[in-house]
Specification:
By secondary structure, the protein is mainly beta. The protein is about 10% helix and about 35% strand. The protein is built from one helix and six strands; from the N terminus they run ββββββα. The protein has a six-stranded antiparallel β-sheet. The radius of gyration is 15 Å and the shape is globular.
C-alpha cells in the first residue's frame, strides 16, 4: 500500500565459516518492511524433545538492503543477547561481492544510506 517492498521469510545460512544459530533455537526470521534495514532473529527457544517453545528473542544481526533487494550486508552480532557489533572488528556477510574489498565497499554504501559510517 505504501509502495515499499515487504518480505517475510526464513533465513538459512550454509558454510563452515558462517556463524550458525545456537542450538535449541527456532529458525531465523527476516521481516523486511522496505526501509533498507531490518533485523534477523529467532523468536523462540525450544525447551524439550517434543519441540515445545517459549518466547525468547535471539537477534542474529542487522541487515542493510538496497531498494531492489539485490544487494545486502548483514552485521552479525557477537552474542544474540547483547546485540553488539563493531565496525572495526565486527563480522559481516555481504553479497554480491567477489572479495573482501568489494564487500567492504558495498557494505559502506548500503550502511551510509542510513547514516552509518564504517571504519577501514
Amino acid at each position: 500500500m505504501n509502495g515499499k517492498k515487504n518480505f517475510n521469510g526464513v533465513i538459512n545460512f550454509e558454510g563452515m565459516k558462517i556463524p550458525h544459530l545456537p542450538q535449541y533455537r527456532t529458525e531465523l526470521i527476516l521481516q523486511y518492511q522496505g526501509d533498507n534495514f531490518s533485523t534477523i532473529f529467532s523468536g523462540f527457544r525450544v525447551i524439550d524433545e517434543k519441540g515445545r517453545v517459549v518466547p525468547d528473542i535471539y537477534t542474529y544481526g542487522g541487515i542493510y538492503i538496497n531498494d531492489d533487494f539485490t544487494q545486502f550486508t548483514i552485521t552479525v552480532f557477537i552474542d544474540g543477547d547483547s546485540q553488539t557489533w563493531s565496525s572495526s572488528d565486527g563480522l559481516m556477510i555481504t553479497a554480491p561481492a567477489k572479495d573482501r574489498v568489494e564487500a567492504s565497499n558495498l557494505s559502506r554504501k548500503l550502511m551510509s544510506r542510513l547514516g552509518i559510517t564504517l571504519n577501514n
